[in-house]
Amino acid sequence: MAYYGSPMLVDDLIFKPKHSLIDQSLHSTMGATTTNGDGFGIGWYGEGPEPAIYKNVSPAWNDANLHEIARQVRTPLLFAHIRAATGTAVQRSNCHPFRWGRWLWMHNGMINGFHEMKRDLMLQVEPSIFADMEGSTDSEMLFFLALSFGLTDDPIRAVERAVGLVEKVASDHGIPHPVQMTVATANGESVWAFRYSSEGKSRSLFFSTDVTRLRELYPDNPVLLNAGDETRLVVSEPLGDLPGAWNEVPESSAGIVRPGVDELIPFRPVA
Amino acid sequence: MAYYGSPMLVDDLIFKPKHSLIDQSLHSTMGATTTNGDGFGIGWYGEGPEPAIYKNVSPAWNDANLHEIARQVRTPLLFAHIRAATGTAVQRSNCHPFRWGRWLWMHNGMINGFHEMKRDLMLQVEPSIFADMEGSTDSEMLFFLALSFGLTDDPIRAVERAVGLVEKVASDHGIPHPVQMTVATANGESVWAFRYSSEGKSRSLFFSTDVTRLRELYPDNPVLLNAGDETRLVVSEPLGDLPGAWNEVPESSAGIVRPGVDELIPFRPVA
Amino acid sequence: MAYYGSPMLVDDLIFKPKHSLIDQSLHSTMGATTTNGDGFGIGWYGEGPEPAIYKNVSPAWNDANLHEIARQVRTPLLFAHIRAATGTAVQRSNCHPFRWGRWLWMHNGMINGFHEMKRDLMLQVEPSIFADMEGSTDSEMLFFLALSFGLTDDPIRAVERAVGLVEKVASDHGIPHPVQMTVATANGESVWAFRYSSEGKSRSLFFSTDVTRLRELYPDNPVLLNAGDETRLVVSEPLGDLPGAWNEVPESSAGIVRPGVDELIPFRPVA
Amino acid sequence: MAYYGSPMLVDDLIFKPKHSLIDQSLHSTMGATTTNGDGFGIGWYGEGPEPAIYKNVSPAWNDANLHEIARQVRTPLLFAHIRAATGTAVQRSNCHPFRWGRWLWMHNGMINGFHEMKRDLMLQVEPSIFADMEGSTDSEMLFFLALSFGLTDDPIRAVERAVGLVEKVASDHGIPHPVQMTVATANGESVWAFRYSSEGKSRSLFFSTDVTRLRELYPDNPVLLNAGDETRLVVSEPLGDLPGAWNEVPESSAGIVRPGVDELIPFRPVA
What we know:
- 4 copies of one chain form a homotetramer.
- By secondary structure, the first copy, chain A, is of the alpha+beta class.
- Chain A has a single domain (2-266), classed as 4-Layer Sandwich (Glutamine Phosphoribosylpyrophosphate, subunit 1, domain 1).
- Helix content of chain A is 29%, strand content 27%.
- Chain A is built from 9 helices and 13 strands.
- A 7-stranded antiparallel sheet of chain A has the order 3-2-4-1-10-9-11.
- Chain A starts with a strand and ends in a 5-residue tail after the last strand.
- The relative contact order of chain A is 0.16.
- Mean pLDDT of chain A is 88; it is low at 17-34.
């Protein structure tokens, strides 16, 4: 889940029950994934130039410290992720979101054949950032490949090249349909979201309708009255019960959430 | 899950896939409860007079050390428990099984109104063992009440008195249907199992059919050939796919698994 | 360590290296206790009516999340505690500070003979708050005894009665010198600190010199220029290298840190 | 600490107090490093072809499960390691001993400039085992370099080549004195121990005197009477108080502990 908008208490975004578009939807998100007990993480922009991260290997619903922190932290840009491990160790360094400088990154999905391709992919990571990889997941590798291909300058192009590389290496290894992903990344000012799979059967991704439009639909909803015009949520599942609130990101697309007009464009891996 | 029989590798009892009555059923057990991520524990009789316990707050399926230990430990009497917390902290001291001297105890269910009754119940714990309580759960309290009422001398009578006390205190507080339980306890030579609820709607409990009888039903099953005659499993759910392998413990019953003839008798709380 | 003053980043109080009276002293504190690896905790007043707590059983210096949070949280009133366990389980519910409503409590020291006296002490805890005790330590018990004796109305009197009770019960059990303590408690507006031991040989406790006086001594110190006039630190050890910065709390004393004039008075247990 | 000899209860090797050469010395070992709270691990040969490992990030002295397991596991070959991290994450996959097939590996010391050299070293790891690296430490890297250079065939030669490579790469990077190490590795039948540093100032390493010789020195010591003739301990510090019990491994040496005559030979890195 990615939140971008007026500063909100994390508790209101990920724990508080019902009575608001956001809470409700997020709570449903959490509920839908409570069997994902392989760690969780939140990342947010607050004090200082770099985003903060709080990650843990215990199930989110059991983490008493998370409840405490969620009631103390306000942020205009929050990433929250619940992990279902796909073969790599359950350890903090493998939990999402990942951070590099001002950038956050989280990924749902997997790289098929990752164990087999790991060395070849690793060799494409820019040497100057090579040793900054802390964990052992395919998700972090994808992040560092994107960084190596210029994520901080042109995020969409960089992810297209990273995914293109993975598909190329997979092809060399005879591995079919290597990439399955929804990805979100941010630099504190904008959020980029991606939906793509080599097979063309990507897991779902949704973004919330423009708040000004939602206010017209639901003039009495107090949450919508308080939400800033720029408020946008990106989530894995069509949540909440307000018709018109959610829009599916099409297959092979990239979206940009930022001050001003957001954008949705095709995503085409570059080999 | 309680296992009593010829010494088995814990791995064969709780992790190994299919191909045997026991593994299969146990694996299913684990599978049926994988959303119970609030800690787990195993207890077994091995070296030394006291049983050993291994308990952890992380989900069982993520505990790499558990996999290691399961492949090293052989035991004729194993308790395994996966916890779904009902309001008390997720910490090792609240995980089952609990141990006192040679005794193990585990409980599925809950004491309704426990928070309200806690002090009154605690006052009934024998002062000499009072400070041995390490956690904060209703399950451990029930164990210590049973110990206070003579568990080590007459287990069934002691549990009847412990449950009777809880029902009495609940009645004083105006709390309906306070007890919901399946309980297993052992001293290294026998296992006692209980199924009871104040309301008369207890969660299920099953015990495995006598092995000599099962061998007649399934003369080609290699696991049954190797299993000792005394082998008995007590589980929460009717598992595996061998017709005739499982028998439901009736409502308000206590069973004794021990060398020689096992027994099943009515369970009647004593106020 | 207790901090009271102008809002500070927790990082500046417990992690940042040297270059300031506060950081330096606190860093020394942390250094002096790095062998205390039995958990740690911080408690602070921030958003909402209740203080927040972050506690963990891992050593503080290894907790990556603590570093993250410390760089995000600003507070005018911080408690920080590193635990050296004295016989009870290493679990989050046994870490300091403890919280009840708006109150925080932390304790260094121990109740000798606690295991033996536990039941008798527990019986004196007010029934309405009895079930709120979450852990198994002597420190939390002392907190709940103080709460039972009116901590929220008259903190010093309540602690005097709690300590008096412990000494009374110890006497009944023939246990000599039961209490060894430095305690700090707060309600968000004031901090109370106590130094006492039954034997008259209490562990040390120090409070920082009035900031206006320190500025006269060190007119060039930038930290002192920025620190608010009400800033006060209470620590276990005489830290930092500014002569005149620290004052020992005398044996059997209680101190009050609050807006306006602080106070230091004799502490006399009441049986 | 590495133990090789007649099967012993792990508890007797790493926890039991005094009264025996072994316990005493090991207990001292543990005591000498209790400030090393960055995880610990044990590895042992027991059931099945591969050694078992139990590793955890919490301090060893707080791990209740370790105490349980130590009282249940008997082994003729035990590795025990307490970690003091040198810059990489405190996570299970970074704890020692490391395992690959039948091999265990543990390391005290560090590779200076590891962050800088990491990529170059990683490229020398045999592609077929590349993805088996689970953590991020210099210690595990050294293990996989040694495996890549033939550890399973000629352990001493392989470690000489691995260390030689590190020194070569360090030289290319202008990093002085890159290697500081005592290393132990085993395959279940023999133990190899190494003491080496590029600077020629290695941390200490000791091995126990031949048991038949020790029995002559201490004819009344019951532990020595029970210890098998092949019993040998390798430890970091000269422990215990039996004069003649410990012998320092010389600078730049490798030792082999195995059935029959042990051996001590010079260790010379091969570039």
